Amino acid sequence: MIAESLNMGVGSVFTIMTEDLKKKKLCARFVPHTLTTEQKEHRIASSEDLIAAADEDPNFLKTFVTGDESWCLEYDPETKRQSSEWTSPGKGRPMKVRASKSKTKTMLLVFFDSRGIIHHEFLRQGSTVTDFDHDATAGRFITSEVLPRRVFSLNKIIHTTVGPNAAAFLSSFTEAVKASDFSTQLLDLSQTTGHEYSQFVYKYSLLAQQSWGSENPEIASIFASRSVSQNFLNIPLESMIRICANIMGRFLHFEGILKEENTHSLASAYAKSYEDSAKRRMSSKQFKTQHEAIGEGFVNFVNSAVRMTPIRAWNLAIHFGNSFTLESIEHGSGNF
């Protein structure tokens, strides 16, 4: 193309490019996605915060549970080096029938912490790792027998992917809440300590988990509430808005409910649920605390938008606790 545009010989162009200009022609490297400058800076800041937390607390990294996945072939032949043998002098090279990798493969999901593998599971043949499959497996592993034995030493479970719909949900929810004086007054917990709100979250979560048929509802409620008191002395309005949006946006995303076409409507309905709860609190003869009104708005939306199951109840508890942890890492831990 360069030779044609300059009306020069291909050899001359090649010599100029490689010898005179010292250029190389390199193939593009495929990457999962590109990041904006703001996203890169945010990742650096979050990584620095995590490093600082790990330096301050030797047990910090021991509190995480994460997971990964890998394709496993039904038959994976050994390489030539793997099948090499020791032979005597004068003996020829051993022969090996050429074999190709099996076309049949299945996905292996593994969850692990600093001490090793906690749970692994093979998906059914032909399955791919959608967010729903990943989260459903997480729910099964969390409610298994092994996690309750470790739960009191665990604080955080990490989900690795969040789609753009969850970010759009956050934006729409924030806009809707700030447009309502009722909602902003309700969600402003700047005068509430993290310990006080954590106690309420545990009690209210326990009732909700029981109503949804959750296994080990007490443990699920610990996951939901523990990070509140651990990460916040108080909870300013801006933080509470982001936390509420991230809890629900991530939960709906991982359950496969949040789509591009319904993101705005779900976020608006979620915000309205809080507004309606605040209005009922103001007009009701039976006094409700601010915390109870927040809990009512949250649970009413969940019950109206999602067909809750025991696994989904557990997943919601995890997203609830994670959102408080991520907020403290990304934006700080409130007004001290």
UniProtKB/TrEMBL annotation:
Superkingdom in the source lineage: Eukaryota
Which InterPro entries does this entry report, sorted A to Z?
Answer: RNaseH_sf, Transposase-MT_Hybrid, Transposase_1
Which residues are listed as membrane-spanning? none
List, in alphabetical order, the Gene Ontology terms for molecular function in this entry: nucleic acid binding
Protein's name according to its UniProt entry: Histone-lysine N-methyltransferase SETMAR
- The coding gene here is SETMAR_215
